[in-house]
Design goal:
The chain contains 2 helices and 10 strands, in the order ββββαβββββαβ. By secondary structure, it is of the alpha+beta class. The longest helix has 16 residues, at 128-143. Mean pLDDT is 75; it is low at 122-155. 15% of the residues lie in helices and 47% in strands.
Amino acid sequence: DVEWEQMAGCYVAEFIADGQEIDVWFNKQAEWVMTETDVESLEKVPAPVAEAFMSSTMTGMRLRDIRIITFPKHPTVIIIEVEQYNSDEEFQLFYAPDGKLLMVSIHQQITNHSSLIINIPLPYQQYASLCRAACQDHCQEVHNTALHPYGGLRG
């Protein structure tokens, strides 16, 4: 079964294939924008990404979500979302398939209706902005706020 919805100005087809949730995004001209695949473990991401994450300081945190984002004209981006135990702080780590960390996005819940979002660009940030739409709905579910591209207090 395929479910359709609109998000971030795109039409999104959601379905399950091989036990994985897949969202395929199309623009208003019916052109493929990206595919977002939710994976359940680090074993499903490229080995250099898993190795880079496992050697980072984030491995002591709770793993919330892993998404692989593929684009028609840009390299794939892998997003690993972790959160601090007993904290409202959450991190999204954007990786290239070769294991390079592209960007870190930090989400801090301030109140029930607002959060502080800080994006820390790294030298390879050029593709991370394309992933923001894929993260936007996840951030809204978690924080009841919209992802702000430049960081800042949202309410």
